[in-house]
Every structure is written in structure tokens, then in C-alpha cells.
Specification:
With about 150 residues, the chain is mostly helical. It has a domain of about 100 residues: Orthogonal Bundle (Cytochrome Bc1 Complex, Chain D, domain 2), CATH 1.10.760.10. Helices cover about 30% and strands about 0% of the residues. It is elongated.
């Protein structure tokens, strides 16, 4: 019995020593900027309103898609843009008043975000001055930050 305890102790010590050893896998991977243009097909629609200083790239579109579904952007990590702008309903909310963090209702329904690149005038009820600043205006909204609507 004493031999088994010694053997198990030695094996546990070896495993512990090996697991504490430095390895190269902890190094962050280098991010490479890929400026491959994203080809947006819009058919017979008018050309989209895309800022010249922020052209669409494959990497940028992929990042935007990931951020649209990212819940860590809300106050308590419980909701993403996609929580209210439901893809199966043309990126709009079906509730009369969108529900914010902690299940509290907001003051209005989340507007549809389908074909927003074609929009020229409607920009979040005056809270955003450019198309690119819309997500910032969203993250500052009361229902996402959990503030009282006044």
C-alpha cells in the first residue's frame, strides 16, 4: 500500500511540474490587417451610403457581424444588438417596447436595421450624426445602460 502512495505522489509531482512549465501557446496571436474589399451586391437599389474614409472590407464586415451578436457590449452581458433586432423578423423587434437589461422595458420599439446602408436621413432619432456612430448611440441608450426613462 505504501508503494502505491509513493508512486501516485511521484506521478502527481511530475504532472504538476509539467503543467507549470512555460509554453509558447500563451503568446497572443498577431492580428494582421487585411484590407480585402468586401463586394456588396445591391442589385437595382441605389448605391449604399458608405463613408469614403471607412470602406467595407471582408474583415470589417466579419467584425461587424460578430459585434452584432456580442452580449458583452451591454451593461450586464445579457443582450446584444441581435437581442432586439431579430434577424428572423427583418432585423426588427416584435415587442411594442423593446426590453433592456434586467428585463426592463425601454421607451420605444427597436427600429428595423435592414438595409441601413441605404438610409440617408433616419439616424437614431438624432442621437447619431453618422452611420458609423449608430452602434455607439445604441450602447449609450437608457435601456442598455439600465437607466430610468425620463
Amino acid at each position: 500500500m505504501k508503494k502505491y502512495i509513493i508512486l501516485i505522489s511521484v506521478l502527481a509531482g511530475i504532472v504538476l511540474i509539467q503543467s507549470c512549465k512555460d509554453d509558447d501557446t500563451n503568446e497572443p496571436t498577431k492580428v494582421v490587417l487585411d484590407e480585402t474589399p468586401y463586394i456588396l451586391e445591391y442589385g437595382q437599389l441605389p448605391p449604399p451610403n458608405i463613408a469614403l474614409d471607412n470602406p467595407l472590407t471582408v474583415q470589417g464586415v466579419q467584425l461587424g457581424r460578430m459585434l452584432f451578436y456580442e452580449k458583452m457590449l451591454s451593461k450586464d452581458g445579457s443582450m446584444a444588438c441581435a437581442s432586439c433586432h431579430l434577424q428572423e423578423f427583418a432585423f426588427r423587434d416584435t415587442a411594442q417596447f423593446s426590453i433592456g437589461v434586467e428585463g426592463k422595458p425601454g421607451g420605444r420599439q427597436a427600429m428595423a436595421v435592414f438595409n441601413m446602408a441605404l438610409e440617408r436621413k433616419r439616424i437614431l432619432l438624432g442621437r447619431a450624426s453618422t452611420f458609423g456612430s449608430r452602434p455607439i448611440a445604441w450602447s449609450n441608450s437608457r435601456s442598455v445602460r439600465n437607466e430610468r426613462n425620463t
